[in-house]
Specification:
The chain is α/β, with parallel strands linked by helices and about 300 residues long. It has two domains: about 110 residues, ATPase, nucleotide binding domain (Nucleotidyltransferase, domain 5); about 160 residues, 2-Layer Sandwich (Nucleotidyltransferase, domain 5), CATH 3.30.420.40. Helix content is about 45%, strand content about 25%. The protein is built from ten helices and 14 strands. The protein has a five-stranded mixed β-sheet with strand order 3-2-1-4-7, with helices on both faces. Strand 9 and strand 10 form a beta hairpin. Helix 1 crosses helix 2 and helix 7 packs across helix 8. The chain starts with a strand and ends with a helix. The mean pLDDT is about 95.
């Protein structure tokens, strides 16, 4: 059986058709039209993807990963960034089911990425893990025995908002945005002239300022990760987001920073991994969520 998988971001929607084992048979990307066409037009554009592939692949359902805080039981968007006008309060699951006649499941994008890594990526075999995405901000998701911990308001895992310093939240201090800001200040250049990839290239070419800024970012990341480890004691930490591509460079730095900040008992039972599914994690995790919820409904 095959399923349409959607990963909804602020500017684009990644989509794919996958079989029940999580193998992607095709992948593509289209614009997110919610700003131009509103919620109705947005839902119609997603339903259009279903129509395009429905017969060829005999689609049996729609698995959705989306930005925003999601009630995964109902498929309702509880909160969304400002670039999703009209999104908060809509029942995305119901909208898509009404448009297509197919069953649908909806999950937050970070939670979906974590589920993807748990199922087929860097989290395979772990009973407990915490997945951290590092980019413009910092997101997180805790999984225990295959289940996402959603919390009372479906907002568990928002680790980037923890106050780790009087200077600001974890994501204000340790995100890629913070790294770019710090290097721009040291180099006396505009932030627009830099991005994470460029800074890592500079460091690998021997730029001491870039190297020192990355070391600081990893140390700041280790502070927040240590807090998570002392509260949840997961057996695995997974680092995702853009910096996952820098695993070879970053692993020894971050691992060393964690060793300094964790008690030996905690550190020795922790495995640090970098996400392996890259841009497919959200779609694969959305499918994992769909299949688990369909199984629960049948039982």
């Amino acid at each position: 059986m095959n399923y349409l998988c959607l990963d909804i971001g602020g500017t684009s929607v990644k989509y794919g058709v996958a079989d029940e084992k999580g193998s992607l048979l095709l992948k593509g990307e289209t614009s997110n039209v919610i700003t131009q066409k509103g919620v109705k037009g947005f839902a119609e554009s997603l339903a259009g993807l279903t129509d395009r592939y429905r017969q060829e692949y005999d689609l049996q359902g729609i698995a959705v990963s989306t930005a925003g805080v999601v009630d995964p039981e109902q498929g309702v968007i509880l909160y969304a960034p400002k670039y999703f006008p009209g999104y908060p309060g809509i029942n995305l699951r119901k909208l898509l089911e009404e448009h297509t006649g197919l069953p649908c499941a909806v999950e937050n994008d970070v939670n979906a990425a974590a589920l993807g890594e748990y199922w087929l990526g860097a989290g395979r075999g772990a009973k407990s893990l915490f997945c951290i995405t590092v980019g413009t901000g910092i997101g997180g998701c805790a999984i225990l025995n295959g289940q996402v911990i959603h919390g009372a308001s479906c907002s568990a895992g928002e680790a980037g908002l923890q106050q780790i310093s009087p200077k600001g939240t974890w994501e204000e201090i340790a995100s890629t945005s913070a790294l770019i800001r710090n290097v721009a200040k040291i180099k006396h250049v505009s932030k627009a002239e830099l991005d994470g990839k460029k800074i890592f290239t500079m460091a690998q070419q021997g730029d001491a300022d870039a190297s020192a800024a990355i070391d600081k970012q990893m140390d700041d990341l280790a502070v927040g990760i240590a807090n998570i480890c002392y509260i949840l004691n997961p057996e695995r930490i997974i680092i995702g987001g853009g910096i996952a591509a820098q695993e070879i460079y970053l692993y020894p730095i971050l691992d060393g920073a964690l060793r300094k900040r964790l008690l030996p008992l905690v550190y020795e039972h922790l495995t640090l991994r970098f996400a392996s599914l890259k841009n497919d994690a959200g779609m694969i995790g959305a499918l994992c969520n769909f299949l688990m919820r369909e199984k629960e409904r049948r039982e």
